[in-house]
Amino acid sequence: MASYQPPAVDVTVLNNPRIISNVTGQRLPAVVGLGPTIRTVVNEAVVRGSGSVDNLAAYPGAGFALNQVASIPGVVAGAPNAMLISLGGQLYQSASASLSTSGQITWSSGSVDIPAFNSTYYVNYIYNVPLSQFLPSTYSDKQVIQAKFGAEDNNTGILTVAGSIALENGSPQVIMVQASGSSFNAAAYTTAIDTLQKLDNIEQICIVFPSGSATVAQQQFVLSYAFSHTQLCNTMGKDRGLISGSPSPAYAVDGYDTIGDVNTPDTYLYRGAALKSADSMYIVPSTVQRYDQNGNLMELDSNFAAVAIAGLQASQPKRSTPLNGFTVTGIIIPDDKWLPVEMNQLGAGNCLVLQSHAGVVTIRDYITGDPTSANTQEPSVQATERLVKRTLSTGLYNTYTNKGLTILPQTPQNVAGTAQSLLSGLVTQGELYAYGQQDNPNTGETKISAQQDATEPRRINVTCSVKYAYPLKWIQVTVSTFV
Q: What is the pLDDT of residue 111?
């Protein structure tokens, strides 16, 4: 029997291959720091099986130790033995069971201190963190961060502090990687930094250090390595920058909180001169504090303030957004610390100055470490430059060089048209002021063109120009008088 179809109208929408997506993925801050080497599990619920073996939720691996078994959660350490032993199956002593690396609890045969079949009991145990702890992971929830890296503190809990600060400043996610070891080790930090090389969604890298165990020289060595990492990645199309600070006297034995000058080591201006680069932002002051989850005041340093800036930058829907005057949350700095003339001195010395008034921390002037020009000094322009590179590279690669095409007479014109579509999209999104549509030697504007290379026939050379959306920083007003 022939199929029947009642009167209808069918509509099919075809994709337009000329429309190129400008979406390049979220750009996130990446944080490297020390973390816990032992993970503690408290009150994990286990259901007693019929045999001698019960299974935990995960394999603890090496370094495990079963500390407590009880029929109710929250039994405090040091409770009387009578609370931990019961023939009636209420509370149990840990000696009745053993724990294996495969996450199995084996109960001793014939023991009277064994939970009843199908009852729920609660175990406390510790184990060494797995190797995955030392690989980059992305987080969007503070509770998940705390579960992996422990409670906030300025020693082994610094990744929890940093990750929380990034999220509190609006970053949709934060990438974190833990350096191995239970105390600061420069080699472990550089190894952790190396694990970030393969990632292509990093906008800024920040390094946080434990309190008291890393000298200024040790911190600067690691930060110099991190900066060299950004320069290497920038040559591989994985463009990123470094935001850093300095330790305060309360955070490191030889920490500092002095404006100084370019010739005096361990001062802000000396460090600002050393970090002169458009790919670097140097945050002052070093005196930073924060309240942890329990309301205790922690001493931190401006490397944590750097994380706040990175999180704030990542929170913006547009890369071209300047952050002058924006509020920074999650950290405390002294109110009204400097006079305007002192802050001007710091700004002239390539320092990004944070200021606080009535407990509200704001960015006084959002700048990089390179004052050469508006293109090099403005972080928003640097971020837009990276966006333009990523957009053109990804768009043209996905449309042409990754499609097994040959160069035909119309191919250069097609490539130029695609480049125009990509740049036009950035203008529409408000990321760019304009792209070049004419040749103007007075302004440097050049229109988009493409042609096959005369000596390398497999290559098409594209030339174009863009005008960035520069931040509004000064308004000059002239007032005349009249009678």
A: 61
Listed in order, strand segments (DSSP E) in 48-183 are 53-55, 65-70, 97-99, 104-107, 120-128, 137-139, 174-179
Residues 198 and 332 in one domain: yes
Give the model's pLDDT for residue 20.
Answer: 42
Q: Which structural domain, as residue segments, surrounds residue 278?
A: 28-34+132-371
**How many other CB atoms sit within 10 Å of the CB of residue 468?**
19
Helix 411-428 with 379-396: angle, nearest 10 deg:
140
β-bridge partners, 461: 451
| 455 within a domain of the structure (yes/no) | yes
Domain boundary among 128, 151, 184: 128
Q: Where are the alpha helices (DSSP H) in 141-195?
A: 142-149, 158-168, 186-194
Residue 310 lies in a domain: yes
Q: Which residues of the chain have pLDDT under 70?
A: 1-25, 59-61, 75-96, 109-113
| CA dist., res. 16 & res. 88, Å (int) | 73
Calculate the dihedral angle through the C-alpha atoms of 436, 439, 441, 443, rounding to the nearest 10 degrees: -20
